[in-house]
Amino acid sequence: METAAKPRVIQLAEQLHADIEGRGLHSGEPYLGTADAAKMLGVSTTLANRAMQLLVQRNVLTRRQKRGTFVANGIHAGNERSIDRVHLVVNKACLATEGKMMDGVIVGIQSVLPHAEIEFNHLPDSEDAEWVSDLIATTARSPYADGFVLIRSSLTSQRLFQASGLPSVIFGSRFPSIQSLPSIDNDHFAAGKLLMTSLIQQGVKKIGVLMRDRILPGDHSFLDSIWKTAAEHGLTPSDLTVRFLPADDQAIQYATRDLIHLHEATGLICRSQPLVEAASRMLTTLQQPEAKKTKIVVSEVYGRSQARLPWKSIRTIDSPDSVGALLAKVLVEQSQGDAPQIPVRRLPVEMIEPTA
């Protein structure tokens, strides 16, 4: 497998770091300004400034207003600077409907970075390239060491953060073309297999699958697992019907009705809690006694406790605070110039029985 190329800004930062060491400079000594650094690197002042700011984030350089750029403490101290501020980058609508960010995750981040500020940055619903570019540019001018947690992020967002060289970790699915950003995500393949196996063991032969309309790589793994498990148990493609639906109760409910009436589904796999809640409300209104007996399982729910849930559901075995701590540790590794030990970490999952 080919080794992914480092983003250009990281390569330039490493060149500057090597130059500092080659000159034998120590903490507190002056270093090149942006124009001189650009001339040495043979790049624009904009790109040189981004590379220098990355070294500020790593505590190799420090910038003092109206005085210039100086070598910082981290040049000979293993780059021990931590993260001053953690940005949780998430679509506001996703945060409201999916409940992805649990309080426990934030607590976990703070357990590793107790003095770091935590702030939400809400992505626009669409066309996020300009917004992300502005956020990255603002961060590059900041004196703080910033880190970013990208939650259910788009390909555009992941590409821009990868190119920035800033400490960033994907909390969710990483797109295949993104090779330099670490990611932490549930094992979606295992989740699909657990849910499908559960319905088959309950005698279900016709299954409807309700998915979100915004598809991410984890959804591909989830569906791959469902199809594979169905085939292993003798089901055919005609026994499964998949629907991709917006976060709209009416759309979900009518799709559920069609799955029951037109496709004779006797079991439903729902990708998220909003999907399962809307589908369940529709089932209670249908007149056929068989409809009310429809078996339902759900993949993603709001919280780890899953109190009073009437459906079998998937839960991450790791607690939210331990996941938050893991996210923070990955950011710290990057801020110190280290590559994460495990670039793609899949969190193990388990099936939970109904609690209501």
Automatic annotation (TrEMBL):
Keywords: DNA-binding, Transcription, Transcription regulation. The keyword ATP-binding does not apply. SMART domains: HTH_GNTR. InterPro entries: Peripla_BP_I, Tscrpt_reg_HTH_GntR, WH-like_DNA-bd_sf, WH_DNA-bd_sf. SUPFAM superfamilies: Periplasmic binding protein-like I, Winged helix' DNA-binding domain. Residues 6-74 form the HTH gntR-type domain. One of its GO terms (molecular function) is DNA-binding transcription factor activity. Signal peptide: none annotated. This is HTH gntR-type domain-containing protein. It comes from Blastopirellula marina DSM 3645.
